[in-house]
Amino acid sequence: MSETLHRQHKAHLDNLLSAYRSLMAQYDYDSIALYSGHATPHYGDDQMPSFQAFGHFVHWVPLWEAEHSWLVIHPDKRPTLYLYAPNDFWHLPTMLPEEPWVAEFDVQLCTDAITPPLTDNTAIVGDIAALRASGGALANGQANPDALIQALDELRIIKSDYEITCLREANRLAMAGHEAAHAAFAGACCELDIQLAYLAASRQRESHTPYSNIIGMNQHAGVLHYQYYDVSAPKQRYSLLVDAGRRFRGYSADITRTHVGPDAPALFEALINAMHAVKDRLIASLTPGVDFIALHEQMHHELAEVMIDHDLFRGSREAAIAEGITRAFCPHGLGHSLGVQVHDVAGLRTASGEPAPAPENHPALRLTRTLTPGMVITIEPGLYFIPMLLAPLRNTSLPINWTLVDQLMPCGGIRVEDNIVITSDGFHNLTP
Ligand code: GLY
Ligand code: MN
Ligand code: MN
Protein backbone atom coordinates (compact mmCIF):
# COMPACT_ATOMS: atom_id res chain seq x y z
CA MET A 1 0.00 0.00 0.00
CA SER A 2 2.65 2.52 0.85
CA GLU A 3 4.00 2.88 -2.68
CA THR A 4 0.48 3.62 -3.91
CA LEU A 5 -0.10 5.98 -0.99
CA HIS A 6 3.09 7.95 -1.70
CA ARG A 7 2.27 8.16 -5.41
CA GLN A 8 -1.22 9.37 -4.56
CA HIS A 9 0.20 11.88 -2.05
CA LYS A 10 2.51 13.30 -4.74
CA ALA A 11 -0.43 13.71 -7.16
CA HIS A 12 -2.47 15.30 -4.34
CA LEU A 13 0.33 17.81 -3.66
CA ASP A 14 0.76 18.60 -7.37
CA ASN A 15 -2.96 19.35 -7.65
CA LEU A 16 -2.99 21.44 -4.48
CA LEU A 17 -0.02 23.44 -5.71
CA SER A 18 -1.67 24.27 -9.00
CA ALA A 19 -4.98 25.10 -7.27
CA TYR A 20 -3.22 27.42 -4.78
CA ARG A 21 -1.26 29.05 -7.59
CA SER A 22 -4.47 29.74 -9.51
CA LEU A 23 -5.97 31.31 -6.38
CA MET A 24 -2.86 33.46 -5.84
CA ALA A 25 -3.20 34.71 -9.40
CA GLN A 26 -6.95 35.27 -9.05
CA TYR A 27 -6.69 37.21 -5.78
CA ASP A 28 -3.31 38.77 -6.57
CA TYR A 29 -1.29 37.40 -3.64
CA ASP A 30 2.50 36.96 -3.65
CA SER A 31 2.20 33.88 -1.47
CA ILE A 32 -0.13 32.04 0.91
CA ALA A 33 1.19 31.30 4.42
CA LEU A 34 -0.59 28.61 6.46
CA TYR A 35 0.04 28.71 10.22
CA SER A 36 -0.27 25.29 11.93
CA GLY A 37 -1.33 26.82 15.26
CA HIS A 38 -0.24 25.81 18.75
CA ALA A 39 -1.68 24.60 22.04
CA THR A 40 -2.06 27.01 24.95
CA PRO A 41 -1.18 25.83 28.47
CA HIS A 42 -3.95 25.56 31.05
CA TYR A 43 -4.28 28.84 32.92
CA GLY A 44 -1.60 29.24 35.56
CA ASP A 45 -0.01 25.92 34.58
CA ASP A 46 2.63 24.52 32.25
CA GLN A 47 0.49 21.58 31.03
CA MET A 48 -1.08 21.57 27.58
CA PRO A 49 -4.35 20.17 26.20
CA SER A 50 -4.02 17.87 23.19
CA PHE A 51 -3.54 19.66 19.89
CA GLN A 52 -4.39 19.19 16.24
CA ALA A 53 -2.85 21.39 13.58
CA PHE A 54 -4.97 23.68 11.39
CA GLY A 55 -6.84 21.74 8.72
CA HIS A 56 -5.42 23.64 5.74
CA PHE A 57 -1.89 22.89 6.97
CA VAL A 58 -2.70 19.17 7.37
CA HIS A 59 -4.27 19.18 3.90
CA TRP A 60 -0.67 19.35 2.62
CA VAL A 61 1.49 17.98 5.40
CA PRO A 62 0.60 14.80 7.30
CA LEU A 63 2.25 16.15 10.49
CA TRP A 64 -1.08 16.77 12.19
CA GLU A 65 0.52 17.48 15.59
CA ALA A 66 3.02 20.10 14.32
CA GLU A 67 2.83 23.27 16.40
CA HIS A 68 4.34 26.72 15.71
CA SER A 69 5.01 25.69 12.11
CA TRP A 70 4.30 27.36 8.78
CA LEU A 71 3.79 26.30 5.22
CA VAL A 72 4.33 29.03 2.63
CA ILE A 73 3.13 28.46 -0.93
CA HIS A 74 4.83 30.51 -3.65
CA PRO A 75 3.86 31.06 -7.28
CA ASP A 76 7.19 29.96 -8.71
CA LYS A 77 9.13 27.73 -6.31
CA ARG A 78 8.62 24.74 -4.05
CA PRO A 79 6.50 25.32 -0.94
CA THR A 80 8.57 26.15 2.14
CA LEU A 81 7.82 24.20 5.32
CA TYR A 82 9.09 25.99 8.42
CA LEU A 83 8.91 23.15 10.93
CA TYR A 84 9.29 24.04 14.60
CA ALA A 85 12.04 21.85 16.04
CA PRO A 86 13.27 23.38 19.31
CA ASN A 87 16.49 22.37 21.04
CA ASP A 88 14.67 20.71 23.91
CA PHE A 89 16.06 18.04 26.20
CA TRP A 90 12.65 17.64 27.92
CA HIS A 91 11.02 16.27 24.78
CA LEU A 92 11.94 14.06 21.86
CA PRO A 93 13.23 16.34 19.10
CA THR A 94 11.02 16.83 16.04
CA MET A 95 12.08 14.51 13.23
CA LEU A 96 10.93 14.43 9.66
CA PRO A 97 9.65 11.05 8.48
CA GLU A 98 11.64 9.29 5.78
CA GLU A 99 8.85 9.59 3.24
CA PRO A 100 8.90 10.83 -0.36
CA TRP A 101 6.55 13.78 0.28
CA VAL A 102 9.31 15.59 2.21
CA ALA A 103 11.20 16.11 -1.07
CA GLU A 104 8.30 18.19 -2.41
CA PHE A 105 9.05 20.90 0.18
CA ASP A 106 11.92 23.18 0.97
CA VAL A 107 12.11 22.27 4.68
CA GLN A 108 13.60 24.63 7.25
CA LEU A 109 13.86 23.30 10.80
CA CYS A 110 13.36 26.22 13.22
CA THR A 111 14.65 26.10 16.78
CA ASP A 112 12.45 29.09 17.68
CA ALA A 113 8.75 29.75 17.08
CA ILE A 114 9.17 32.16 14.19
CA THR A 115 7.00 33.96 11.73
CA PRO A 116 8.56 33.55 8.29
CA PRO A 117 9.57 36.56 6.23
CA LEU A 118 6.50 37.53 4.18
CA THR A 119 5.60 40.39 1.88
CA ASP A 120 2.71 42.82 2.45
CA ASN A 121 0.88 40.98 -0.22
CA THR A 122 0.88 37.57 1.47
CA ALA A 123 -2.37 35.95 2.58
CA ILE A 124 -1.80 34.63 6.11
CA VAL A 125 -4.25 31.88 7.01
CA GLY A 126 -4.67 30.28 10.43
CA ASP A 127 -5.26 31.07 14.10
CA ILE A 128 -3.76 34.54 14.02
CA ALA A 129 -5.42 35.52 17.32
CA ALA A 130 -3.58 32.66 19.10
CA LEU A 131 -0.34 33.68 17.39
CA ARG A 132 -0.74 37.25 18.61
CA ALA A 133 -1.76 36.15 22.12
CA SER A 134 1.39 34.04 22.41
CA GLY A 135 3.51 37.10 21.59
CA GLY A 136 4.26 35.80 18.08
CA ALA A 137 5.16 38.48 15.61
CA LEU A 138 2.56 38.94 12.92
CA ALA A 139 4.34 39.61 9.71
CA ASN A 140 3.09 41.91 7.04
CA GLY A 141 0.31 40.45 5.03
CA GLN A 142 -3.43 40.05 5.00
CA ALA A 143 -4.86 37.89 7.76
CA ASN A 144 -7.53 35.34 6.90
CA PRO A 145 -9.11 36.97 3.85
CA ASP A 146 -12.68 35.67 3.58
CA ALA A 147 -12.83 35.00 -0.14
CA LEU A 148 -9.56 33.06 -0.11
CA ILE A 149 -10.53 30.97 2.92
CA GLN A 150 -13.80 30.04 1.26
CA ALA A 151 -11.90 28.98 -1.84
CA LEU A 152 -9.42 26.93 0.25
CA ASP A 153 -12.33 25.30 2.12
CA GLU A 154 -13.87 24.42 -1.22
CA LEU A 155 -10.65 22.59 -2.16
CA ARG A 156 -11.14 20.42 0.93
CA ILE A 157 -14.66 19.21 0.23
CA ILE A 158 -13.68 17.08 -2.78
CA LYS A 159 -11.22 14.44 -1.66
CA SER A 160 -8.30 13.25 -3.77
CA ASP A 161 -7.38 9.57 -4.18
CA TYR A 162 -4.73 10.11 -1.48
CA GLU A 163 -7.28 11.44 0.98
CA ILE A 164 -9.72 8.61 0.24
CA THR A 165 -6.94 6.07 0.84
CA CYS A 166 -6.20 7.76 4.20
CA LEU A 167 -9.88 7.78 5.17
CA ARG A 168 -10.25 4.11 4.19
CA GLU A 169 -7.24 3.17 6.32
CA ALA A 170 -8.56 5.23 9.26
CA ASN A 171 -11.83 3.27 8.94
CA ARG A 172 -10.03 -0.08 8.85
CA LEU A 173 -8.11 0.75 12.02
CA ALA A 174 -11.20 2.12 13.78
CA MET A 175 -13.23 -0.97 12.96
CA ALA A 176 -10.72 -3.17 14.81
CA GLY A 177 -11.46 -0.98 17.83
CA HIS A 178 -15.21 -1.34 17.35
CA GLU A 179 -14.92 -5.12 17.27
CA ALA A 180 -12.90 -5.10 20.49
CA ALA A 181 -15.40 -2.72 22.13
CA HIS A 182 -18.25 -5.06 21.25
CA ALA A 183 -16.36 -8.03 22.69
CA ALA A 184 -15.61 -6.08 25.88
CA PHE A 185 -19.30 -5.26 26.24
CA ALA A 186 -20.18 -8.94 25.78
CA GLY A 187 -17.66 -9.64 28.58
CA ALA A 188 -19.60 -7.27 30.90
CA CYS A 189 -16.89 -4.59 31.00
CA CYS A 190 -17.63 -1.05 32.17
CA GLU A 191 -17.48 1.99 29.88
CA LEU A 192 -13.87 2.80 30.77
CA ASP A 193 -12.69 -0.73 30.03
CA ILE A 194 -14.60 -0.69 26.72
CA GLN A 195 -12.83 2.56 25.84
CA LEU A 196 -9.45 1.04 26.78
CA ALA A 197 -10.20 -2.07 24.70
CA TYR A 198 -11.14 0.21 21.78
CA LEU A 199 -7.92 2.23 22.07
CA ALA A 200 -5.75 -0.87 22.36
CA ALA A 201 -7.27 -2.60 19.33
CA SER A 202 -7.27 0.54 17.19
CA ARG A 203 -3.64 1.19 18.23
CA GLN A 204 -3.88 4.76 19.50
CA ARG A 205 -3.65 6.80 22.66
CA GLU A 206 -6.70 8.70 23.83
CA SER A 207 -5.27 12.13 22.98
CA HIS A 208 -4.84 11.02 19.35
CA THR A 209 -8.50 10.20 18.64
CA PRO A 210 -10.07 12.67 16.18
CA TYR A 211 -12.85 13.39 18.70
CA SER A 212 -13.63 12.20 22.22
CA ASN A 213 -14.94 8.67 21.82
CA ILE A 214 -18.55 8.30 22.91
CA ILE A 215 -18.93 5.05 24.85
CA GLY A 216 -22.36 5.07 26.44
CA MET A 217 -24.14 2.21 28.14
CA ASN A 218 -27.88 2.19 28.85
CA GLN A 219 -29.33 5.71 29.18
CA HIS A 220 -25.92 7.18 28.33
CA ALA A 221 -26.53 5.90 24.78
CA GLY A 222 -29.17 8.63 24.56
CA VAL A 223 -26.75 11.43 25.46
CA LEU A 224 -25.65 12.54 22.02
CA HIS A 225 -22.11 13.58 22.96
CA TYR A 226 -21.80 11.63 26.23
CA GLN A 227 -18.42 12.60 27.66
CA TYR A 228 -17.62 10.31 30.63
CA TYR A 229 -16.56 6.68 31.11
CA ASP A 230 -18.08 4.92 34.11
CA VAL A 231 -15.51 2.83 35.97
CA SER A 232 -17.93 0.18 37.15
CA ALA A 233 -20.34 -1.87 35.07
CA PRO A 234 -24.06 -1.35 35.67
CA LYS A 235 -26.04 -4.29 37.06
CA GLN A 236 -28.44 -4.22 34.12
CA ARG A 237 -26.97 -4.11 30.63
CA TYR A 238 -29.49 -2.87 28.10
CA SER A 239 -27.36 -1.26 25.43
CA LEU A 240 -23.99 0.08 24.33
CA LEU A 241 -23.44 2.92 21.87
CA VAL A 242 -19.88 3.36 20.57
CA ASP A 243 -19.16 6.43 18.42
CA ALA A 244 -15.41 6.23 18.04
CA GLY A 245 -12.79 7.14 15.45
CA ARG A 246 -9.17 6.91 14.42
CA ARG A 247 -6.83 9.21 12.56
CA PHE A 248 -4.57 8.14 9.75
CA ARG A 249 -2.12 10.84 8.60
CA GLY A 250 -4.54 13.37 10.08
CA TYR A 251 -7.63 11.98 8.31
CA SER A 252 -10.51 10.90 10.53
CA ALA A 253 -12.80 7.91 10.74
CA ASP A 254 -16.14 8.57 12.48
CA ILE A 255 -18.03 5.31 13.02
CA THR A 256 -20.94 4.47 15.32
CA ARG A 257 -22.36 1.10 16.29
CA THR A 258 -25.07 0.29 18.82
CA HIS A 259 -25.21 -3.10 20.53
CA VAL A 260 -28.00 -4.83 22.40
CA GLY A 261 -27.36 -5.99 25.98
CA PRO A 262 -28.80 -9.07 27.67
CA ASP A 263 -31.39 -7.08 29.65
CA ALA A 264 -32.93 -5.14 26.77
CA PRO A 265 -36.46 -5.84 25.55
CA ALA A 266 -36.57 -7.82 22.28
CA LEU A 267 -37.95 -4.71 20.59
CA PHE A 268 -34.63 -2.91 21.08
CA GLU A 269 -32.73 -5.44 18.99
CA ALA A 270 -35.43 -5.25 16.31
CA LEU A 271 -35.02 -1.46 16.30
CA ILE A 272 -31.22 -1.72 15.94
CA ASN A 273 -31.72 -3.98 12.93
CA ALA A 274 -34.30 -1.59 11.51
CA MET A 275 -31.89 1.34 11.92
CA HIS A 276 -29.14 -0.57 10.09
CA ALA A 277 -31.62 -1.13 7.28
CA VAL A 278 -32.48 2.60 7.27
CA LYS A 279 -28.77 3.47 7.08
CA ASP A 280 -28.18 1.01 4.26
CA ARG A 281 -31.19 2.25 2.26
CA LEU A 282 -30.06 5.87 2.63
CA ILE A 283 -26.54 4.89 1.56
CA ALA A 284 -27.89 2.96 -1.43
CA SER A 285 -29.51 6.15 -2.70
CA LEU A 286 -26.24 8.13 -2.66
CA THR A 287 -25.13 9.36 -6.04
CA PRO A 288 -23.95 12.66 -7.56
CA GLY A 289 -26.77 15.20 -7.69
CA VAL A 290 -28.46 14.08 -4.46
CA ASP A 291 -29.57 17.04 -2.34
CA PHE A 292 -28.41 16.28 1.22
CA ILE A 293 -31.27 18.26 2.80
CA ALA A 294 -33.73 16.08 0.87
CA LEU A 295 -31.86 12.97 2.03
CA HIS A 296 -32.03 14.20 5.63
CA GLU A 297 -35.79 14.63 5.17
CA GLN A 298 -35.91 11.12 3.71
CA MET A 299 -34.29 9.91 6.97
CA HIS A 300 -37.27 11.41 8.84
CA HIS A 301 -39.69 9.53 6.53
CA GLU A 302 -37.75 6.34 7.27
CA LEU A 303 -37.81 7.04 11.02
CA ALA A 304 -41.57 7.56 10.88
CA GLU A 305 -41.94 4.18 9.14
CA VAL A 306 -39.75 2.47 11.74
CA MET A 307 -41.81 4.00 14.56
CA ILE A 308 -45.10 2.96 12.95
CA ASP A 309 -43.88 -0.55 12.00
CA HIS A 310 -42.75 -1.17 15.60
CA ASP A 311 -45.94 0.26 17.14
CA LEU A 312 -44.17 3.22 18.75
CA PHE A 313 -46.43 5.61 16.86
CA ARG A 314 -50.04 4.89 15.92
CA GLY A 315 -50.59 7.75 13.52
CA SER A 316 -49.62 8.43 9.92
CA ARG A 317 -46.13 8.94 8.56
CA GLU A 318 -47.09 12.49 7.60
CA ALA A 319 -48.30 13.27 11.15
CA ALA A 320 -45.11 11.85 12.71
CA ILE A 321 -43.10 14.33 10.64
CA ALA A 322 -45.47 17.32 10.71
CA GLU A 323 -45.88 17.15 14.51
CA GLY A 324 -42.10 17.08 15.02
CA ILE A 325 -42.18 13.59 16.54
CA THR A 326 -39.35 12.17 14.47
CA ARG A 327 -37.28 15.24 15.35
CA ALA A 328 -37.83 14.62 19.06
CA PHE A 329 -36.62 11.04 18.56
CA CYS A 330 -33.67 12.16 16.36
CA PRO A 331 -32.54 15.74 16.96
CA HIS A 332 -29.29 15.66 14.95
CA GLY A 333 -28.49 15.82 11.27
CA LEU A 334 -28.13 12.85 8.94
CA GLY A 335 -24.40 13.44 8.47
CA HIS A 336 -21.56 15.77 7.63
CA SER A 337 -18.46 16.10 5.51
CA LEU A 338 -15.44 14.17 6.79
CA GLY A 339 -11.73 14.80 6.25
CA VAL A 340 -8.86 16.20 8.32
CA GLN A 341 -11.57 17.51 10.60
CA VAL A 342 -14.26 15.16 11.78
CA HIS A 343 -16.84 17.84 10.97
CA ASP A 344 -15.11 19.07 7.86
CA VAL A 345 -15.37 22.51 6.29
CA ALA A 346 -17.64 23.88 3.54
CA GLY A 347 -20.73 21.84 4.44
CA LEU A 348 -22.99 24.89 4.67
CA ARG A 349 -22.14 26.59 1.37
CA THR A 350 -23.04 26.02 -2.23
CA ALA A 351 -20.34 25.09 -4.72
CA SER A 352 -20.28 28.73 -5.86
CA GLY A 353 -19.66 29.92 -2.30
CA GLU A 354 -23.11 31.19 -1.32
CA PRO A 355 -24.11 30.52 2.30
CA ALA A 356 -26.44 27.51 2.55
CA PRO A 357 -27.42 27.38 6.23
CA ALA A 358 -29.28 24.49 7.82
CA PRO A 359 -33.07 24.70 7.38
CA GLU A 360 -34.90 26.34 10.30
CA ASN A 361 -36.59 23.11 11.38
CA HIS A 362 -33.36 21.08 11.14
CA PRO A 363 -30.84 23.45 12.77
CA ALA A 364 -28.30 20.72 13.62
CA LEU A 365 -27.78 19.65 10.00
CA ARG A 366 -24.11 20.27 9.12
CA LEU A 367 -24.27 19.53 5.39
CA THR A 368 -26.73 21.16 2.99
CA ARG A 369 -24.91 20.60 -0.29
CA THR A 370 -25.71 18.74 -3.46
CA LEU A 371 -23.45 15.70 -3.52
CA THR A 372 -20.66 15.50 -6.09
CA PRO A 373 -18.02 12.85 -6.80
CA GLY A 374 -15.14 12.90 -4.30
CA MET A 375 -17.16 14.13 -1.33
CA VAL A 376 -16.73 11.98 1.77
CA ILE A 377 -19.66 12.12 4.15
CA THR A 378 -21.11 10.30 7.12
CA ILE A 379 -24.55 8.72 7.13
CA GLU A 380 -25.67 8.41 10.73
CA PRO A 381 -29.38 7.99 11.38
CA GLY A 382 -30.42 7.74 15.02
CA LEU A 383 -33.44 6.96 17.17
CA TYR A 384 -33.19 8.03 20.82
CA PHE A 385 -35.29 8.08 23.97
CA ILE A 386 -34.19 11.43 25.44
CA PRO A 387 -36.30 12.45 28.43
CA MET A 388 -35.76 16.19 27.87
CA LEU A 389 -37.04 16.03 24.28
CA LEU A 390 -39.91 13.61 24.93
CA ALA A 391 -41.29 15.46 27.98
CA PRO A 392 -43.18 18.09 25.94
CA LEU A 393 -44.80 15.34 23.82
CA ARG A 394 -46.14 13.54 26.89
CA ASN A 395 -48.59 16.36 27.55
CA THR A 396 -50.17 16.04 24.12
CA SER A 397 -52.76 13.66 22.72
CA LEU A 398 -50.38 12.52 19.95
CA PRO A 399 -50.72 8.75 19.43
CA ILE A 400 -47.30 7.79 20.79
CA ASN A 401 -47.20 4.39 22.46
CA TRP A 402 -45.75 5.55 25.79
CA THR A 403 -45.86 2.05 27.26
CA LEU A 404 -43.33 0.86 24.67
CA VAL A 405 -41.32 4.09 24.79
CA ASP A 406 -41.01 3.72 28.56
CA GLN A 407 -39.80 0.13 28.15
CA LEU A 408 -37.09 1.45 25.81
CA MET A 409 -36.01 4.44 27.93
CA PRO A 410 -33.31 2.45 29.81
CA CYS A 411 -31.73 1.59 26.42
CA GLY A 412 -30.97 5.29 25.75
CA GLY A 413 -30.93 5.18 21.98
CA ILE A 414 -29.51 3.91 18.72
CA ARG A 415 -27.10 5.46 16.23
CA VAL A 416 -25.39 3.69 13.34
CA GLU A 417 -22.82 5.58 11.27
CA ASP A 418 -20.74 4.76 8.19
CA ASN A 419 -18.29 6.85 6.13
CA ILE A 420 -19.03 7.05 2.42
CA VAL A 421 -17.25 8.43 -0.64
CA ILE A 422 -19.43 9.67 -3.50
CA THR A 423 -18.21 8.28 -6.83
CA SER A 424 -19.08 9.25 -10.40
CA ASP A 425 -21.67 6.48 -10.58
CA GLY A 426 -22.82 6.17 -6.99
CA PHE A 427 -20.91 5.60 -3.78
CA HIS A 428 -18.33 3.46 -2.04
CA ASN A 429 -18.68 2.59 1.64
CA LEU A 430 -15.32 3.10 3.41
CA THR A 431 -16.53 1.47 6.62
CA PRO A 432 -15.70 -2.23 6.58
N1 GLY B 1 -18.75 11.67 16.34
C1 GLY B 1 -19.40 12.88 16.09
C2 GLY B 1 -20.34 12.74 14.98
O1 GLY B 1 -20.78 11.66 14.67
O2 GLY B 1 -20.66 13.68 14.30
MN1 MN C 1 -19.78 9.85 15.06
MN1 MN D 1 -20.47 11.86 12.50
Automatic annotation (TrEMBL):
The UniProt catalytic activity note for this protein reads: Xaa-L-Pro dipeptide + H2O = an L-alpha-amino acid + L-proline
Q: What is its EC number?
A: 3.4.13.9
Q: Where does Mn(2+) 1 bind?
A: D254, H336, E380, E417
Among InterPro entries, the record links this protein to: Creatin/AminoP/Spt16_N, Creatinase/aminopeptidase-like, PepQ_N, Pept_M24, Peptidase_M24B_aminopep-P_CS, X-Pro_dipept-like, X_Pro_dipept
Q: Which residues form the Peptidase M24 domain?
A: 166-423
What is its cofactor? Answer: Mn(2+)
Domain (Xaa-Pro dipeptidase N-terminal) ranges: 9-152
As to how many cofactors bind and how, the note says: Binds 2 manganese ions per subunit.
Origin, by domain of life?
Bacteria
KW Metal-binding (keyword) present: yes
For whether the record's keyword set contains Isomerase, the answer is no
Q: Name one GO molecular function term.
A: proline dipeptidase activity
Which residues of this UniProt protein bind Mn(2+) 2? D243, D254, E417
Sorted keywords for this record are: Dipeptidase, Hydrolase, Manganese, Metal-binding, Metalloprotease, Protease
Its function?
A: Splits dipeptides with a prolyl residue in the C-terminal position.
Describe the family membership recorded for this protein in Swiss-Prot or TrEMBL: Belongs to the peptidase M24B family. Bacterial-type prolidase subfamily.
This chain's protein is named Xaa-Pro dipeptidase
Which species is this record about?
A: Vreelandella vilamensis
